[in-house]
């Protein structure tokens, strides 16, 4: 593949690579091959005058500050790109040493491509993806000690979050080791445990920095806004009594009976049920103080009960159970291991963690959906095996049963594959090897060195352990190695393999698993700005590779005693890929696979891979956009589609279309189920924000999964503007139906939460983003609320005035939320503390009225603290006299960790 390169003429001798248009410089076009590309990146014309010691001193002392000036576009924006949208940002560089040399480059991750650089002292060049480098340009006059120089530039679209500014800038001189610039490293807040970016200037202006455009109505989540949002939720710990999350189908209290004490534990009679099947649930009970003991309360599992005695909300669903708690003991009735596990999980949910008592009652329960999933991306940034095991524990506690483990994408391959060691030797690491012989290019602020926690992979033994750990908790692991797009890690690993084998004279072996056509001149760009991340689907070696990977993963499942019966292929395709590939042109000309045009290649790949899987007894799953390109008649009858379309953008249409094919349609709507989005509309919150800037637990709780378009009555779009969802039959000019309502004979298979990891660099941040939102995912996956608007199969148009979501339904939803919020605040967060889960401690709402402080929190029961500027933290009491400004924060349920501090003006 050849890459078109546009570089500044004055910087050409210093920098060769993919870059964007530079301001006030002549454009020069050059074409380089991959081998040339690697050798020329970062090269200089003559040996540098800088030494390793000087470079180290620069790295230790150079102060860098990143600042978004405005997201309001002006006439200098590129009017032909991104609809004329751009932002203005600045990078300040303050040197503590004199620097006269021009033989250096600073590499860093810039999340949006540069449109133009102001002035002639510096150039910014995009290398690949988000990797950019800053180099001196013609007008560079050197640094003097203590001098600050500012690079002002415009970038595509907008930057609305302080976490957009990625860390670990590093300075490079040809022939020397790279040095990380210390001022751009993240630090950890000792009170919150969260990452802090000290090199980023805080946002101060909502209109210019936090608005996407002039019509944007979203309010910055100040203490006043949060206070108003929390105001209607009562502080009532009694609402948490006798409650279980997720909410059961039916609970009957025995009001005339006294509480049952479990201080001495439980004496469990298994009655033939495998201890392994319920051991995880018993461990959860033990963590909150209820262990197994011969002196404990008599408890037993009973599999002899007829399922006819159970509520059977979803007759085909597994996991139904009945829990009876009385003064004579505890019984769990179920027909399968999952039911027994869930019955014990509900017992754990009912236990008062302080008194270790539970009230006598009867719980009858069954899940709404059979598929109740959580997706976690460990490719963009790696996450440890221990994080996955801890996540599985919490999934089991809240009755989630599918772990979608995303282990390969552009930025990393995270699973050892026997016979293909390069996938992990090269593809699991990012470092400053611009040839990519030993690692991938640094992306996402990973820095120049491979020995960092964002790099890594699971060994075969690790993966087998994860599979067995999940199976013991009735959770199915769904492996995912994204393809044909989002496959850069695999492509570059196999290119490194080929180069190594060719150097050994093994030319034929080098071709065996090739994934790219070296003669492909196609110019394209993925959504993450890669031009080399798509498997060439016209090469038989691509399918040889896929077959090898799937077989090796299946062997690991077999060794774990957990058959592989569902595999997620991603199914993403990159628009425009393959167009100039000689291999693809020949492939179509030969026409022996039924492909007659380039437009059919994406569908061909997914269909062929799905059939390959079906032949192995494995069901294929894929993301809804790629799956929509397939021809249903060419697909296996059984297939799963993960729906990730935004409801505010008509996302219900694809969901209905793919469910109507008879596929297992799993809902994952981004504006409510993407947990890598911010909790609240605050630029200091972690996460991406392309579909939502405020996805808190209450919003997830409000999700009406059984009637997607009806959510238009209660939600707004990303700019807090109302939208309409038209669910009536739509036809094109030929009369062909292009969208229609869900058919009464079909339904959704379930729902899944997603955590993508571009901005999630550590295990603690991953837990912060997932918890406590995972509880509300479980609530909506397990329990069908009474207030959900019934679906109208004849079709309807929904908006904020359509009236299907009645006043009574809204009131019932509010009452339900009050119970859930108090349950989380009074009971569930403490259990997360006991499990050492670094959940997000919420930010408080607060106002000052007549010199008195009034504060609240989304989860009543959590303690709030306040202090005058520079003073001592004090426990908040309603109406305490204060003098503005005042700082406020929330304390974790166990009193240890602290939430982020906000200021009340």
TrEMBL record:
It is an enzyme of class 3 (hydrolase). It comes from the Bacteria. Gene3D superfamilies: 2.60.40.290, Chitobiase/beta-hexosaminidase domain 2-like, Glycosidases, Immunoglobulins. Residues 1-20 form the signal peptide. Its EC number is 3.2.1.52. The keyword Thylakoid does not apply. Keywords: Glycosidase, Hydrolase, Signal. Belongs to the glycosyl hydrolase 20 family. PANTHER family: BETA-HEXOSAMINIDASE, BETA-N-ACETYLHEXOSAMINIDASE. This is beta-N-acetylhexosaminidase. It comes from Shewanella schlegeliana.
């Amino acid at each position: 593949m050849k890459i078109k390169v546009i570089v500044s003429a004055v910087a050409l001798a210093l920098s060769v690579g993919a870059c964007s248009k530079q301001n006030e410089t002549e454009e020069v076009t050059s074409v380089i091959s991959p081998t040339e590309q690697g050798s020329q990146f970062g090269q200089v014309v003559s040996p540098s005058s800088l030494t390793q010691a000087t470079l180290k001193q620069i790295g230790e002392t150079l102060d860098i500050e990143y600042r978004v000036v405005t997201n309001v576009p002006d006439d200098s924006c590129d009017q032909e790109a991104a609809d004329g949208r751009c932002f203005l940002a600045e990078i300040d560089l303050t040197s503590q040493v004199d620097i006269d040399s021009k033989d250096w480059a600073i590499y860093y991750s810039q999340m949006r491509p540069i449109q133009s650089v102001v002035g002639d002292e510096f150039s910014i060049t995009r290398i690949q993806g988000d990797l950019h480098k800053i180099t001196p340009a013609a007008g560079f006059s050197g640094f003097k000690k203590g001098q600050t120089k500012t690079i002002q530039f415009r970038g595509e679209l907008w930057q609305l979050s302080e976490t957009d500014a990625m860390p670990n800038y590093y300075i490079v001189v040809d022939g020397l080791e790279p040095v990380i610039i210390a001022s751009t490293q993240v630090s950890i807040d000792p009170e919150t445990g969260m990452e802090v970016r000290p090199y980023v200037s805080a946002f101060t202006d909502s209109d210019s920095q936090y608005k996407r455009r002039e019509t944007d109505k979203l309010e910055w989540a100040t203490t006043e806004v949060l206070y108003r949002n929390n105001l209607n939720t009562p502080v009532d710990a009694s609402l948490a009594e006798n409650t279980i999350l997720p909410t059961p189908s039916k609970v009957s209290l025995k009001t005339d009976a006294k509480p049952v004490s479990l201080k001495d534990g439980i004496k469990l009679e298994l009655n033939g049920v495998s201890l392994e099947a319920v051991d995880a649930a018993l461990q959860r009970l033990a963590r909150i103080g209820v262990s197994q003991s011969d002196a404990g309360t008599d408890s037993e599992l009973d599999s002899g009960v007829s399922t006819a005695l159970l509520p059977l909300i979803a007759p085909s669903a597994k996991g139904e159970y009945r829990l009876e708690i009385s003064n004579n003991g505890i019984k769990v009735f179920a027909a399968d291991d999952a039911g027994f596990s869930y019955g014990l999980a509900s017992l754990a949910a009912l236990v008062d963690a302080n008194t270790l008592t539970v009230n006598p009652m009867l719980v009858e329960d069954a899940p709404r959906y059979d598929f109740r999933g959580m997706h976690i991306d460990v490719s963009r940034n790696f996450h440890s095996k221990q994080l996955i095991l801890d996540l599985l524990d919490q999934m089991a506690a809240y009755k989630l049963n599918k772990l979608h483990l995303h282990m390969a994408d552009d930025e990393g391959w995270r699973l050892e594959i026997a016979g293909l060691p390069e996938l992990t030797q090269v593809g699991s690491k990012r470092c400053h090897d611009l040839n990519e012989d030993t690692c991938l290019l640094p992306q996402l602020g990973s820095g120049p060195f491979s020995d960092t926690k964002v790099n890594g992979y699971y060994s075969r033994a690790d993966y087998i352990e994860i599979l067995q750990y999940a199976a013991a908790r009735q959770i199915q692991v769904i492996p995912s190695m994204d393809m044909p797009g989002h496959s850069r890690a695999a492509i570059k690993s196999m290119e490194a393999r080929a180069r190594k084998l060719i150097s050994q004279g093994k030319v034929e072996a080098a071709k065996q698993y090739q994934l790219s056509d070296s003669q492909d001149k196609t110019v394209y760009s993925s959504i993450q700005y890669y031009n080399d991340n798509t498997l060439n689907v016209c090469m038989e070696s691509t399918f040889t590779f896929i077959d090898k990977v799937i077989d090796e993963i299946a062997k690991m499942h077999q060794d774990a005693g957990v058959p592989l019966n569902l595999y997620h292929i991603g199914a993403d395709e990159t628009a425009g890929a393959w167009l100039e590939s000689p291999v693809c042109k020949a492939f179509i000309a030969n026409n022996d696979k039924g492909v007659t045009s380039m437009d059919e290649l994406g569908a061909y790949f997914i269909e062929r891979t799905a059939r390959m899987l079906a032949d192995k007894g494995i069901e294929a799953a894929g993301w809804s956009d790629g799956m929509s390109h397939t021809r249903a008649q060419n697909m296996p009858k059984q297939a799963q589609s993960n729906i990730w379309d935004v409801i505010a953008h008509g996302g219900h249409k694809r969901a209905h279309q793919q469910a109507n094919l008879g596929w297992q349609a799993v809902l994952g709507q981004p504006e409510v189920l993407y947990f890598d989005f911010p909790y609240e509309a605050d630029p200091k919150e972690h996460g991406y924000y392309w579909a939502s800037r405020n996805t808190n637990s209450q919003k997830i709780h409000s999700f009406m999964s059984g009637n997607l378009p009806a959510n238009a009555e209660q939600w707004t779009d990303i700019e807090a503007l109302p939208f309409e969802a038209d669910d009536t039959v739509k036809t094109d000019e030929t009369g062909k139906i292009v969208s229609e309502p869900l058919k009464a004979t079909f339904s959704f298979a379930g729902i899944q939460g997603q955590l993508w990891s571009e901005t999630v660099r550590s295990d603690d941040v991953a837990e912060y983003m997932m918890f406590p939102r995972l509880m509300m995912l479980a609530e909506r996956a397990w329990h069908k609320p009474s207030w959900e608007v019934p679906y109208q199969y004849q079709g309807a148009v929904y908006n904020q005035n359509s009236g299907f979501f009645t006043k009574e339904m809204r009131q019932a939803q509010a009452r339900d939320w009050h119970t859930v919020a108090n349950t989380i605040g009074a009971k569930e967060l403490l259990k997360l503390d006991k499990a050492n889960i670094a959940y997000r401690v919420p930010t408080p709402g607060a106002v000052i009225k007549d010199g008195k402080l009034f504060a609240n929190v989304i989860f009543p029961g959590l303690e709030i603290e306040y202090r005058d500027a520079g003073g001592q933290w004090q426990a908040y009491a309603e109406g305490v006299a204060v003098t503005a400004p005042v700082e406020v924060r929330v304390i974790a349920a166990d009193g240890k960790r602290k939430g982020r501090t906000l200021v009340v003006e």
